[in-house]
Amino acid sequence: MRSVTPPVRSRVRSPGAERRRLMRRQKQWEGLANAWRLLFFLAAAGGLGVLVLDQGWQLSRADQVVVSGSERLGRERVLEALELSFPRTLLDLVPSEVEERLGTMLPVQEVHVQRRMLPPRLMVRLTDRDPLAHAERPTRSGVEAGLVDGAGHWMDRSLLAAGEEPLTSIRVLGWQQRYRPTLEQVLERRDGMGSPLSRVRFESNGELWLSTEALGDVLLGSDDGRHPERLAVMRHLTSKLPQQLSGRRLVSIDLTDPEQPELGIAAKPASASAQAETD
Predict the structure, then answer these.
(1) In what order do the strands lie in the sheet with 121-128?
(2) Disulfide: which of 55, 96, 190, 208 matches 197 by Cβ 3.0-4.6 Å?
(3) CA 76, 82, 84, 88 torsion: positive or negative?
(4) Please, are residues 133 and 147 in contact by the beta-carbon 8 Å criterion?
């Protein structure tokens, strides 16, 4: 008995199914190509980023530090204050930290710092302090002469241009850093004392003396928070006291207790008749 082999049926795809298969394969190839393009661009961007960070954001010369705004301070003083050496990556120089350091190390009122990439530069803009008064401070080697600004900050005399003078004729004696807030308070109120301020003197124990044209030497004492009150009393005394002295010479005023001022008045010279009687 012969076995009968069934006929093999061939699979015939419809035109629509074949078209869909080709479209799926094309999309697969396109996806693979896009993935390779993305990898290529990522690698190129990463390499470019490394190059920019290594070269584009690197300071290699001093003239890449651009200093503006100050008439007294230049690039050399800024580099010295920052202790900056080259080459140096810009990313290592955080603007806020640079501003804080320069504001501490240099006699400036304001500092503004920016980083620029193309070309790589560090932009430093300084606002100078204006010297307000002559000053002296004690040092180990003696008394040092200098200047102070309106906020009481010490300034080196070398910062003054040739022929430049402070804005006032006030002299500050015995300056120390711990007295700066008190000095700032006095200088801010100098025009409200009723008479021109000529001298500010700090004793070694911290006591404060002021001298004005109308009152002479006035003791305010240590800074206990009541100096504004004492300065108000000074203004009042300036307007009222000269008429009450009747020609007597005022030696000093003690305002350590502003509610009870103590006046030091020179004794009247003895008259000629009184001296004759005494003789």
Answers:
(1) 65-68, 121-128, 108-116
(2) 190
(3) negative
(4) yes
Contacts of residue 77, Cβ cutoff 8 Å, sequence gap at least 6: 106
User: At residue 47, does pLDDT exceed 90?
Assistant: no
Quick: pLDDT tens for 182-220.
999 999 999 999 899 999 999 999 999 999 998 999 999
- Extract the tokens encoding 32: 């693979």
Give the predicted TM-score (pTM) of the model: 0.69
- Give the pLDDT confidence of 77-100 residue by residue, as tens digits: 999 999 999 999 888 999 999 999
For residue range 222-231, what is the model confidence (pLDDT) as tens digits?
Answer: 999 999 999 9
**Residue 63's domain spans which residues?**
58-128
Last residue of a domain, one of 68, 94, 128: 128
User: What is the band of 58 on the pLDDT scale with cuts at 50, 70, 90?
Assistant: confident
Burial category of 252 from C-beta neighbours within 10 Å (exposed 0-12, middle 13-18, buried 19 and up): middle
Based on the domain organization, do 62 and 91 belong to the same domain? yes
More confident residue, 271 or 71: 71
Pair (135, 260) in one structural domain: yes
Other beta carbons less than 10 A from residue 167's beta carbon: 11
